[in-house]
Amino acid sequence: MRQRPADTVSAVLLALALHVALLLLLVFGLSWTRSNAEPAFGSPVTAELFDPEALSAAQRRALEAPPEPLPEPPEPERLPAPEPVEEEAAPPPQPLPQPMPEDAMVDPQPRAQERMPEPDTLDQDAARREAESELAAEREQEERRRQEQIDLTERERQEEAEQQRRLARQQELEKLRAERERLRREAELAEQKLKQIADARARQASEQAAEAASPPPGRPDGDSDLAARYAAALQEAIARNWVRPDNVPLGQTCRLYITQLPGGQVMSVEFDASCPFDALGRRSVEAAVRKAEPLPYRGFEPVFARRLNLNFTAQDR
């Protein structure tokens, strides 16, 4: 809408009138504030206490001098009265301006539709070939992973079979070692039995030769009772130092041969092949003979023999 010159003049006059009214209000407000700013009871009074004797001579003279009169305050400046402002008459209503062709409302033009690009056949073929190549690569990779998994499973199966074969060979070797150890022990036992049989035969031959050379103890003087008491003393001395193993039953008898010196010192202890005691029982009897050393001798000199044939009976003390 176009603005006319008459409208501009009326607007300027209204603005000037408004500024003049504001200036008058400001002047009257300042004068009213100054007239009412003074307090009703004047300025406040202050006082200070001091000692007259402590003042100097100059201060005493100043106090004794009469006070000077205060100057009268100047009269307040009065502002000039504002000039009356003539009220400007309101302008008469103006007719509405005629609409101009250039000021007419025009509907906006519709926005042109964006042009869709036409698909490129070459790009589609390249994308299709690329997708096919990617799919083929994925299939090849999947086939490779599947083949690797098959190879890994086959290797694990072969390793497990090889481990089982090694375990079977190790078990066979252990069985062979155990069988070899059993055969070795049996051979040692057989050798020991043969040695015991040979020793027994040798002892039997020596005993027969000794019996043929000299009569048994106690018989030269016919004192068989002393020989019986000597045998009982030997049995008592050995049994006193013997601890019966659990696998040796009570009342079981073992024949042993003791070689001694005059005075009862033991030289050796041997067992007859017919002794039913096992190795532990024989060792316990030999330990008891060693502990009973020296064997009974004093009082049994007439029936003493360097080699004793003793039948030891298992019994608890």
What topology emerges from the helices and strands here?
Blueprint: H1 5-35, H2 57-64, H3 121-213, H4 224-240, E1 253-260, E2 266-271, H5 279-291, E3 307-313
Antiparallel strand pairs: 1-2, 1-3
Helix pairs in contact: 4-5
Region (Disordered): 56-169, 198-224
Biased composition (Pro residues): 90-100
Biased composition (Basic and acidic residues): 125-169
Description:
Helices cover 51% and strands 7% of the residues. The two termini are 148 Å apart. Among the domains are: 81 residues; 99 residues, 2-Layer Sandwich (Fusion Protein Consisting Of Minor Coat Protein, Glycine Rich Linker, Tola, And A His Tag, Chain: A, Domain 2). The protein contains five helices and three strands; from the N terminus they run H-H-H-H-E-E-H-E. A three-stranded antiparallel sheet has the order 2-1-3, covered by helices on one side. With 317 residues, the chain is mainly alpha-helical. The protein is elongated, with a radius of gyration of 75 Å. A hairpin with a 5-residue loop joins strand 1 and strand 2. About 4% of the residues have low confidence. This is TonB C-terminal domain-containing protein. It comes from Luteimonas endophytica.
Question: Helical percent range?
Answer: 40-55%
Note the gap between the termini: 148 Å
β-sheet strand percentage = 5-15%
Encode the helix/strand succession as letters.
Answer: HHHHEEHE
CATH architecture annotation of the domain at 215-313: 2-Layer Sandwich
The order of strands across the largest sheet is 2-1-3
Oligomer state equals single chain
**What is the average of the pLDDT values?**
76
Rg calculated over all Cα atoms: 75 Å
- Main β-sheet description: 3 strands, antiparallel
Counted beta strands: 3
Q: Looking at the structure, what is the overall shape?
A: elongated
Low-confidence stretches: 209-222
